[in-house]
Write the structure tokens for this entry.
Amino acid sequence: MSSNQNEGFSLQCPVPRGTHATVQMAHGGGGRVMRNLIEGFFLPAFGSDPAKEPPHDAAVMDVPEGRLAMTTDTFVVSPLFFPGGDIGKLAVYGTVNDLAMAGARPWALSAAFILEEGLPLETLERIVASMRDAALEVGVRIVTGDTKVVDRGKGDGVFINTAGIGVVAPGVQVAPRRVKPGDAVIVSGDLGRHGMAVMSVREGLAFEAELQSDCASLAGLVDTLLEAGADVHCLRDLTRGGLAAALCEIADGAGVGIELDEASIPVSPPVANACELLGLDPLYVANEGRLVVFLPAEAAERTLEIMRSHPAAPQPAVVGTVTETHPGMVQLRTTLGAERIVDLLSGEQMPRIC
Ligand code: MG
């Protein structure tokens, strides 16, 4: 892990364990404080050994043959810990999943932390451990990072940015332009868990215990699909804006229509109940471990079979089809048999959920 050690600041270090230690602004002597933090705290968690490879300004690595994919995302979720996950897990899986959606195998991540003065070090330690575990599970390394501290009241505990690079194997083409009329639209599981799990904690809803975020890596599932030779035209993770936003963007980008069948869209009873209570539509609620696949309809059955064998696709279902008619538009056939247009929302339905 290399790090920008020149500016900003920093944790009070060496990091005292236990008690009520918190993140402090450090005035003067910053270089050593930052070095202690990186060497004593982040490097061990993220698997780098400064004795073997002294820290440098940038990570240098070999990459396998193929094209590089790169993405970045910033995580500001509130609360930091929620049923089924936390900001650290989200910061790793979120970026890993965006790489996977391009058909890339995640190769390396960066992690940058903006810490609010007064943040308990124990909280930071839990978050860093969670990132380490998530990265280990995915098989991706966190190779570089940065830490800044802002004054009390100028942040909200922790914000994390992760960037990632991945490698797209030769021959793999996963992109909206490949979506064609006749493609099947398949989701990997029930929708709306993440958004409703976070909202239930925030709103103090009684059924909070039943609602777990779906926060998970999708890289293994994508790998399995590509390894099986599935002719995947496009993938999209159903994060902010949910299935509705993902499909509207793809319909628009690919210049095709999409017809959805509401009855076939999996939504669990606790999510449906919570949505009804809060006046939300599960189609628009964020997920952090669900994706949509577009591929030729004749491959749908075989794809469902492959997905059913993978833990990251708990309830795969064909939910719609790509059409030539009404290009750029998503239409939903409701459970009552009516047709309605699914449109992008003008505002943010749920702020700070990722
Ligand atoms: Mg995405």
Confidence is low (pLDDT under 50) at residues 1-18. Residues 98, 101, 237, 239 surround magnesium ion (CB under 6 Å).
